[in-house]
Design goal:
Layout: E1 22-28, E2 31-32, E3 36-38, H1 50-54, E4 57-59, E5 62-66, E6 72-75, H2 77-90, H3 98-111, E7 124-133, E8 146-155, E9 166-170, H4 188-193, H5 195-203, E10 208-212, E11 220-223, E12 227-232, E13 235-239, H6 248-260, E14 264-268, E15 280-285, E16 289-298, E17 304-306, H7 315-329, E18 339-341
Parallel strand pairs: 9-10, 9-16, 13-14
Antiparallel strand pairs: 1-2, 1-3, 1-8, 4-7, 5-6, 5-7, 6-18, 7-8, 10-11, 12-13, 12-15, 15-16, 16-17
Helix pairs in contact: 2-3, 6-7
Bound molecules: pyridoxal-5'-phosphate and 2-OXO-4-methylpentanoic acid.
Length: 343
Amino acid sequence: MKKDTSIDWANLTFGYQQTGLNVRCKYANGKWGDLMFSDSDTISLNIAATCLHYGQEAFEGLKAFRGKDGRVRIFRMKDNAERMLASCKGIKMAELPVELFCEAVCKVVEANKEFVPPYGYGASLYIRPVIFGTTPRVGVRPADEFEFIVFAMPVGLYFKGDKETTPFMLTRKYDRAAPLGTGTYKVGGNYAAGMVAGEEAHSKGYSAVFYLDAREKKYIDECGAANFFGIKNNTYITPESTSILPSITNKSLQAIAERILGMKVEKRKVPVEELATLEEAGACGTAAVISPIERIDDIDTGESYIFSKNGEAGPVCKKLLKHLKAIQNGDEEDIFGWITYVD
Ligand code: PLP
Ligand code: COI
């Protein structure tokens, strides 16, 4: 357990660091046990555990923010709990009750309050719940025992650069998830599947890969570990797909666009050629927040879709980001009921 909390809040990266206590809970004999605190950041695991061999693992990512008033706010915790439950069902893990998830998250935030960055640094406490199969198996079958752990650490920006906007690499060479596969679940295997593509993008100077649908390679899926949205004619447009993660940030932006900015929202298939008609484009997610897109280079065809020439975000991206942050930090009224206070 880390005791020294002297942290350089202004220069946080999006990286792991050991903090205070984490919370753990085991599932055995058909039921979840009690939540326990741990001051260790390691686990003991059977060498044949299903999570190691067959990828029986799911995780979540959510954030807590400190407001001007000093209070700590967790953003849309119940939505993450529901998505983790869906992931559990999707890869045959014990179902994690929404209430247990929320109790564990609140306990971890409470126990790590000194690691929640102060207001004004653009930083937050990133909360990482993870669940995995622990039963030793060599035959491919689901585990009977599972462990659920929640830990947290302060983080800064995910896509760090010297500009407000970031470049993406579009290619048809890789798929992240199959049309009827596990793309809608937040399971580790999807991220392993994207590592070769991701590293190629990084080595070429891009922030992440821009994926098209795996079946036809015609429609936009998502961008790295973030959903995609485009803006045109006062409309917020975002892909409908059976292989992307249902992003909670994306849902939040749709609500802000509609209810606060008075925009239209379209959730539908977005053909790749439509990129040429968009006024603005962005990647969104808990880690990515809103990362306005500078340009998308199609490295297969040589075409470039450019959304920003001077490195600045467009006006709608700026407004969406302003309202999202203001609700998260408590500067703006939470008209949607997204915030849980831990104090
Ligand atoms: N898509 C993928 C593949 C992700 O890993 C994430 C991150 O969680 C997102 C989208 C964004 O989802 P959310 O806004 O719920 O964090
Ligand atoms: C998140 O945005 O919470 C993610 O999980 C993205 C990534 C760091 C895997």
